[in-house]
Amino acid sequence: MRDIVFTRASGWIPNVIREDGELRLMLGAGADANHAPRTFTFPIGEAHLAVIREDLARHLLLWSAVLPLCDAAGTQGRLDEDAAVALLDPILLSAPADVDAFFRHIRWDRGQLIAHGADIDLLERGQVCAAMRTATETPNGKRAQEYDANRRRAERGTVLGPLDVALLKYTGQYVHGATVPRRMPDAVDPALLTEVMRVIATAEQACAGMRIGRDPRRGKRATDKRDWERMAATVDAAVRRAHPGLVDDAVRTVSFLMCSEAADRSRSVPMEDDEEPDGTFGEGARKTALSFTDDKGVEKEWRADGPRTAAAVFWEFVEDRSAGDNEVFTIEDEKRGEGVQLHFYADSIARITTVREGEGGADTEYRVEYSLVDGIGGYRTLVSAFVRGGCAALDQHGSWIADAAEFERARRRRRDAD
Q1: Other Cβ atoms closer than 10 A to 384
Q2: What is the greatest pairwise CA distance in the chain?
Q3: Edge-to-edge strand order for the sheet containing 328-333?
Q4: CA distances from 387 to 19, 269, 369 (A)
């Protein structure tokens, strides 16, 4: 039989219960192997209950000292009740100076106390009882998160100035650096907002006209890593030049914002067309019908009388079908007897041209030539050139090697150089 004897408004602060006639402190902490919350209890006395009822600060201090014992129990272990009971008298019944001394020799959860309003400077100096004079029953989790974020920065040797803080809050990355940045002007101190917007304007001007293209090799929402790195480097250099006092965290959050917004713009539109009908290859060389296939044998047809260009349709096909075990895609012009095969796993491409049609049971003779490809931008250039002008149009793009062994050596040399 379990009855609740005392509880506070905040549901996570430990409750006092009576179980089979015995007073026990009950708290939730950690999770089991199925990610469900674990509950722990251990015995207390009437004198401990009296302090817990009347003194929020002591109640919170006890909680912060018990939490590491719960963490030590893991997902299946039992709480060390003897260790928990040994915390009661020193924390609940001792003089403040003795409590401060006791906390200098035990593990305790600082974040919970900070969330409940503890004075951070006093906590840092080891004056835990004095720090808890400002304690509140209702927690502020964001306060503890900000403390943890600043502590991690301090461990890296990073000290934020007011404008650094304002920029990180503007992008929503003050607490969590891995959060996708967004524009949050309301989170910034109004006195600093104008200066923040000057930094943002510097970044916007630096990357004006730049774009981050899609990378269909990696799925529907993937973008070109090299485009991202190029834009980030451009913004980084411009912001550092115009605002040299900013720390690395602040500069990175601004470049991250610019790149994220550019990537979102790219993802929000259909696969872009790469082809510009400039007549370079002549209308006779243009493709009227093509077939696209992947390494799984799936095929898609494209015809010139359709609403989309061949390159756009092909890259949408790649976007839909590309996977870790599906990295070879082919474009074939059966009418002209030529095609290209893209090997995404090897950063290479092969162009295949029919030399002689098989007659009288003889096999058709093909010429196969290989070339290394420089990222998704290189692939898009080659695909666009092929669908506009066939294999002949690829001559001006890269070096083509007919010997497979020689090509493999070239590929290994580049891989080793990288």
Answers
A1: 22
A2: 105
A3: 299-303, 289-293, 328-333, 338-343, 348-356, 365-372
A4: 78, 22, 17
- The tokens for 192 are 């600093």
Using CA atoms of 38, 39, 43, 48 in order, give the dihedral in degrees to the nearest 10. 110
Please, which residues have CB within 8 angstroms of residue 368's CB and are 6 or more apart in sequence?
350, 351, 352, 402, 404
Tell me, what's the pLDDT at 358?
A: 62
Average pLDDT, consecutive stretches of 10 residues, N- to C-terminus, the chain (418 residues): 87 90 92 84 96 97 96 90 97 97 95 95 96 95 91 90 96 88 96 97 97 91 92 98 96 97 87 49 62 96 91 94 95 94 95 79 83 93 93 91 90 84
Using only C-alpha atoms, the chain has a radius of gyration, in whole angstroms, of 33
Give the pLDDT confidence of 328-358 residue by residue, as tens digits: 999 999 989 999 999 999 999 999 998 877 6
pTM, rounded to two decimals: 0.75
Q: Positive or negative, the Cα torsion across 299, 303, 307, 311?
A: positive
Where does residue 291 fall: left (phi above 0), alpha (psi -120 to 50 degrees), or beta otherwise? Answer: beta
| pLDDT for 261 | 96
Sole residue written with tokens 């491409």: 349
Per-residue pLDDT, 36: 83
